[in-house]
Specification:
Helices cover about 25% and strands about 35% of the residues. By secondary structure, the chain is an alpha+beta fold.
Length: about 90
Amino acid sequence: MHIFEIRSGPEIEATVFARSHDHAAELYMAWCIMNGADMLTPLEVAKYDHAGHQRHADEALSRNIAGIGQYDERAGWTVVTPERFGEIA
């Protein structure tokens, strides 16, 4: 499992926990579709540099769960699985 950033130009659209670049793109597209996206813009999938949040990243990666990541400074990463994509916007 790896952490990826989905970017549209300079903007980070989402942080995704996935097995590969392709898996990250698939999860992101599924999340967008479930949240009513009409059109997807061109995207860049890049490895996330988690050096600043190493402990939280290691904890989240050890769970081996794929999905959209949400970060909180105190709690660390929460990974929302595809079954729950409709719960987050």
